[in-house]
Write a structure and sequence with these properties.
Blueprint: H1 3-17, H2 26-53, E1 56-59, E2 68-71, H3 73-95, H4 104-111
Antiparallel strand pairs: 1-2
Helix pairs in contact: 1-2, 2-3
């Protein structure tokens, strides 16, 4: 599925979970949802790339030097984005109303699905 559609679908999924958020926190939640949706779709793309191409690649500094395996830039980007995504998820979870923190919606949110 096209990335923009996956982002929109994830935004809609998260918005349903955060419908009962306090009005004072709503703008913050909306911004975090947009970032989380983008990051999730991007992480899925990175995961596909890493599954296909691996976390390392053969690299040769010069013609006379032996090649060695190094971490692919995509692996670094994935790790950095995944850390940021986890922080956003934590922030969003902390902004949930207390009555929703024990709900099935939260479990669905944390577990999510790739479909």
């Amino acid at each position: 599925m096209e990335k923009s559609k996956r982002i929109k679908r994830e935004e809609n999924r998260l918005k349903k979970i955060f419908t009962g958020v306090d009005e004072n926190k709503k703008r913050t939640v909306e911004g975090l949802i947009k970032r989380a949706a983008f990051m999730r779709a991007s992480l899925e793309d990175f995961e596909d790339d890493l599954d296909q191409n691996g976390f390392t690649e053969s690299f040769q500094q010069g013609e006379r030097q032996a090649p060695y395996d190094r971490k692919r830039p995509a692996a670094d980007l994935y790790n950095t984005m995944n850390t940021g995504y986890q922080k956003i998820i934590k922030q969003l979870t902390d902004l949930l109303p207390d009555d929703k923190k024990d709900s099935d919606d939260l479990l669905d949110f944390l577990g999510g699905d790739r479909n």
